[in-house]
Amino acid sequence: MEQKRLLVVGAHSADFVWRAAGAIAKHTLGGGDARVVALSYGERGESGELWKEPGQTVENVKRHRHAEAEAAANEVGASFEGFDLGDYPLQITDEAIERLAELMRDYRPHIVLTHPDKDPFNPDHPVASTAVSRARLLTAGAVVEAGFRTAPPSEFLVFEPHQPELCGFVPSLFVDITEVFEQKKRAMGCMKAQSYLQQYYAERAEHRGNHARKVTGDKSIRQAEAFMRLVPNVVGAL
Questions:
Q1: In sequence order, what DSSP letters do the residues of 29-66 get, joined into one string?
Q2: Domain chopping of the chain, boundaries
Q3: What does CATH list as the number for 5-229?
């Protein structure tokens, strides 16, 4: 059986940890392969703890953030790559789109995760969403023979934003992360530049666990992560 491949693309290096570390850990625990791409390190706008250090520099913050993200990805069995495009504002060039599309053609992910296309509090998240959507479409083409290299279309989902009700996010899929919740907490613990978010996202996993229990009646679910499908999934029968 072909190994299932998961690609997670965030605007900043820690985005995958808060929103999808549990799902990534479940995916790799089940034998799947996972790759995380951060379009930026969040060095300017999302590294507050590091900027408290006297004499801090952008390049040093980037090094810290790369090391943190790599350690967090390792905790959940994924690889990590930083595009280093800069943040606040994140600006995506045509070259960056092609770089991401080429990565998708090489990796041929079965599932792609990224941000929703709306976020009134973060200028970079919608930019990342648009970039990933465009790269994915360029990767698959029109799903017919093409004059450029393509890859099969993937499932396309977005992970939960910080304030979902303001971002048009309506969950259509919960992943039970009870079995790997300790891995998620260790991954979150790697992100020392944003340690203030660890409690929030631990509690969010508990809330979504409650919602998943109500959907399924399965009392063994304690923690979960929420996602929203952007394209329908196809099954052989109901």
A1: HTT-EEEEEES---TTTS-TTGGGSTT--HHHHHHHHH
A2: 5-229
A3: 3.40.50.10320
